[in-house]
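Ticket 4471: requesting a sanity check on a complex prediction with zinc ion. Repro inputs:
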Amino acid sequence: MEHKIIKKDDKTWIIQEGDIRMFILAGDEKALLIDTGLSVENVRGIAESLTGLPVFLLNTHADRDHTGCNEQFDCFFMHPAETPNFERTGKKGVIVPVEEGDEIDLGNRKLRIIHIPGHTPGSIGVLDVNRRVLISGDPVQQNGAIFMFGEQRSMEDYVRGLEHLEGYIDEFDELWPSHGDLPVAPSVISEVRLGAEDVLAGKINGVPKEVHGSQITAYDIGVATLLCEQ
Ligand SMILES: [Zn+2]
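Returned structure tokens:
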């Protein structure tokens, strides 16, 4: 798939591959690539040439549209709860575990990990502390479709994960999700959480749909669509 590179500032880039985003954050000493999309050839080389720095990889979670080119790295930061999901992709590589509260310093650029379980058990967001931006992966989207059907997903955990994230809204001014609109306002976290609660409470009528060969139910929660088990 075609991709394009969007420069956000002198040390920050977005790679857009269709509806999928990857992020490159550079500090003074090293750079971090967040996710590897589906099939961006030489995504590692792109990050190295843009930043001129050694590049490490972090995955927000193990879904295939986020780990497609992980084989370009021997190891990568990922939440350990993603191990079964990652193993199902059949890809190789060593998971370097990162969990809630862990910090990564790229050299005058501190990043902090926030655990947002539910979409997958080990979904994480990366808080770019001084820029006050949360790179949030899949759980929070505006005008996107949030996959909540299939193995390893839990609507109950998802609501709790979003509640946990709501505890951090004083620490960032915008979210940069992997799909849908960018940026997204922090208030959208609560909108999505309330929508998920309404779905669990049976307050929203779902529409049957086929997605990637699975029969699912789509719930329009206004700000986004939740794709759930039938
Ligand atoms: Zn995704």
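Notes from triage: The radius of gyration is 17 Å. Leaving this open until the requester confirms.
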